[in-house]
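agent: user wants the structure for GreA/GreB family elongation factor from Roseateles toxinivorans. delegating to structure tool.
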Amino acid sequence: MDKFLLQQQVLERLAEDLLQAEQAARAAHETATHEENVAENKYDTLGLEAAYLATGQARRAEAIRRAMANWRQFRPRPYDASKGIQLGALVCLVDSDDKQQQLFLGPDGGSMKLVSGAQLIQVISSEAPLGRAMLGKCEGDEVSIQVAPIRQQFEVLRVH
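agent: tool returned. relaying tokens verbatim.
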């Protein structure tokens, strides 16, 4: 599996998300500033609510821009068994039910599912609980995380 192609898919998806967030921010701003939405009394809050929404959408767009910058600068390296799993690793985990999952460990802001060929790949950050738990692990190692009252355990099958 080509990590560069996965990185490009992440950037494309982030670009789509950015476009949607910018369009939503513009629409909310237009609603907030439209003359028909000027408050007539203290209970008329449509314009105020739209302004809050516009601010939130603008913040979301800025967060996506930062994530895109991080992903553009990101250079996944080949797996080095002496260092274990690091940022840029493509990892295959198996759980106790023999269910496998493919994970691509990347920078913040790119949490999403991608399809490469016939495989589903979950992109996660090294800041995510599972991402943190995998750091430094090697093929054959156990990885466990606590999710609410349940402890989930995995085995690292392959790392690229």
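agent: one observation worth passing along. Residues 3-33 form the longest helix (31 residues).
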